[in-house]
Amino acid sequence: MKKDRAATEAKIYESFLSLLEEKGPQAVGINAIAKKAGVSKELIYRYFGGLQGLLLQLAKKGDFFKTLLTLQNNDLETVESVKDFAKAGTKELRENKLTQEILRWQLLENNDATRDLFKFSNQQIDKVFSISDKDSSLNHALQLMIGGYVYLTLLSKFNKTFITTDLTSQDSWDNFDKALEKTIDLFNK
Amino acid sequence: MKKDRAATEAKIYESFLSLLEEKGPQAVGINAIAKKAGVSKELIYRYFGGLQGLLLQLAKKGDFFKTLLTLQNNDLETVESVKDFAKAGTKELRENKLTQEILRWQLLENNDATRDLFKFSNQQIDKVFSISDKDSSLNHALQLMIGGYVYLTLLSKFNKTFITTDLTSQDSWDNFDKALEKTIDLFNK
DNA sequence: CCAACATGTAACCATGTGGTCACATATATT
DNA sequence: AATATATGTGACCACATGGTTACATGTTGG
Fold it and tell me: Residue A134's pLDDT is what?
């Protein structure tokens, strides 16, 4: 039998990630991870310090909004740049399943095991989305709409519709993007 | 020992509700309900048909947005009535813990047991929120903001802040209400 | 009154969970 | 080569889960 710690650590971590991405926070457990990795669960405790350590690893390695951090350097002073930023944000959110599941997780619990992960991912979010302090009402409107985007994205995993809107259609998401743009425009007039 | 089926059924149902309200969907299980009701779990199967039956009961009895259904009869043609409606909606959502936990539940799973409950509660939501088809972009903007309100309400159970906003402060929620109102105004100009 | 039935309980089952253990085997050090 | 250490495994533990069973006891109708 071959022995390669680095390889098994990678197997464990990858299994953990894919389990979280595919089946969500509820499915993430020591037994499930070990089984998926094809490895004894004892190793998860030894190499990572249990689930808590695995979450900490994710917090450190996690690239939750990396595509946005590149845009972050832009001015965000002009209306157009804010709109571009919003569009990039919704795109990133819709495509990054890992981020989605972490956001879902935050709606379920907040304990010792998850605290570090949430703290870190929230720092990322804060860094990215702390914008336009001038107009407070636009700020709150944008936060509501960002939150709405998160909500609808998470909801779309299990629901085909929200009120009258078909969540499976790309058109719907384009319309949400347009509504977001239009709101930004209206607040800047 | 006294025997009173109606009373024990009530005990079971009430325990189920309070468990859901206080600890959320994850905590709702046959064992926990029976323990809280101080009753043998066999009776839950006999009288309700298990957890599934309990959820069905909730779907039938549930008053998810009853305070809004009274407003529903209003015109919703004037800008002011839409704003009143929105304000009543956010208030209802923030106060009704049961509704909150059902909405949270919809972000976690959708199976045979929950299907009926979700179907019914969504019908309620649709009935209440299917408004203003004329302006599609306002419609989508409102849906985003409603979704955002739901998201932030659910999040506030475990998180004290969202980006720069303090979710424990009444002021913040007032500001969200104002942002919502202002958005409605701007779209109607 | 006593038989039939409704109501209620506790034990039990298989399964799954997180967590620990003693042990085996491969790799590295002396 | 012999020994020490790193890596890996499977059994085991206590506990919790949903679900079923056999049985006991209260209530009711003939």
Answer: 57
Backbone angles phi, psi at B127, to 5 degrees: -60, -40
Residues 18-37 of B with CB under 7 A from strand D: 29-32
Instruction: Tell me the shortest Cα–Cα distance from A161 to chain B, in angstroms.
Output: 9
Please give the share of chain A, as a percent, with pLDDT higher than 70.
95
- Residue B62 pLDDT: 82
Cβ atoms of A19 and A25 closer than 8 Å: no
Strand partners, A165: A162
Q: What is the pLDDT of residue B75?
A: 66
Please give the structure tokens belonging to residue A80: 């157009």
Q: Is the pLDDT of residue A159 over 80?
A: yes
A139 touches chain B (CB under 8 A): yes
pTM above 0.90, yes or no: yes
**DSSP letter string over A115-166?**
HHHHHHHHHHHHHHH----S-HHHHHHHHHHHHHHHHHHHHTTT-SEETTEE
User: What is the Cα–Cα distance from B144 to A177, expressed in whole angstroms?
Assistant: 10
Q: Which residues of B163-179 are buried (b: 16+ CB within 10 A; e: fewer)?
A: bebebeeeebbebbbeb
Phi-psi region at B163: left, alpha or beta (left = phi > 0; alpha = psi -120 to 50): left
- What is the rounded distance in angstroms from the CA atom of residue B186 to the CA atom of residue B137? 12
Half-sphere exposure of A18 (CA within 13 A, CB side): 12
Answer whether A140's CB lies under 8 Å from B165's CB.
yes
* A174 and B CB contact within 8 Å: no
